[in-house]
Amino acid sequence: MYTVDLIALIERHGLCPHLYADDMQIYGSCPPSAVHDLQLRLSACMDDVHFWMQFNRLQLNTNKTELLWCTTARRQHQLPRSAFRIGSAEIIPTTAVRDLGICIDADLSMRSHVQRTVAGCFAILRQLRSIRRSVSLSVFQTLVVALVLTFLDYGNATLFRLPAYLLNRLQSVLIALARSIAGLRRSAHITDALASFHWLRAAERIKLKLAVIVYRALHSSSQHCTSTSV
């Protein structure tokens, strides 16, 4: 409840706050011609937030503060690149930020999130391959589903309508997992192995997650949408 005043303070500047635990996010939007005005409002808002936190014996962690300007790739050159002042610190605008495990690019392309997800999945798979011969097939498959597929599916509802080349990168993780479980070489056909595991393709997994979220939202379900491994 102690953050109620902070929410009202941010809204007075015409900005939208989002607080989650000790994480605070401030959003604002404007047409391209009003970027400078938005920057001034955001700067004034952060000054008030900084003062409010000092008055309430709290500390704003400028080392973890990030600024992201979002627009299409064609308009990226129109965005300000100058440092943003918060108290005595200056924040350089970044090209991507991480929000609850989801990496968001300045052009909202989700390329960074896909790259990190694919790299993380292959890193886990390399570790699992080192114990492939030490465990049974059922145990190895359970580890793959629990450690890799869960990581692959986390937050994938935000990836709806990705370009085909990014979906193919996610699909490459599923193909590599199937080869590892089935013990197939890279030159071997993978279609039958994928069918035997009853795994949905990367694009289908995204649609399923989004459909489940929408269904539960419409039916006021309080259950969390867990990752699927089908």
Description:
- This protein has 230 residues and is mainly α.
- The protein has 2 domains: 4-99, no CATH class; 110-218, no CATH class.
- Helices cover 47% and strands 10% of the residues.
- It contains 7 helices and 6 strands; from the N terminus they run H-E-E-H-E-E-E-E-H-H-H-H-H.
- The protein has helices at residues 4-11, 35-55, 111-129, 137-153, 164-182, 191-197, 202-218, and strands spanning 16-20, 23-27, 84-86, 89-91, 96-99, 102-105.
- The strands form 3 sheets. The protein has a two-stranded antiparallel sheet with strand order 1-2. A two-stranded antiparallel sheet has the order 3-4.
- Helix 4 packs antiparallel against helix 5.
- The longest helix is centred in the first third of the chain and has 21 residues, at 35-55.
- The radius of gyration is 22 Å and the shape is elongated.
- Residues 225-230 have low confidence and may be disordered.
Quick one: how many beta strands? 6
Mean pLDDT score? 87
The fraction of residues assigned to DSSP E strands is 5-15%
Q: What is the share of helical residues?
A: 40-55%
Name the overall outline.
elongated
Overall radius of gyration: 22 Å
Structural class designation: mainly alpha
Low-confidence stretches: 225-230
**How far apart are the first and last residues' alpha carbons, in Å?**
41 Å
In total, how many domains does the architecture comprise? 2
Secondary-structure element pattern, one letter each = HEEHEEEEHHHHH
What's the helix count?
7
Which sequence of strands runs across the widest sheet? 1-2
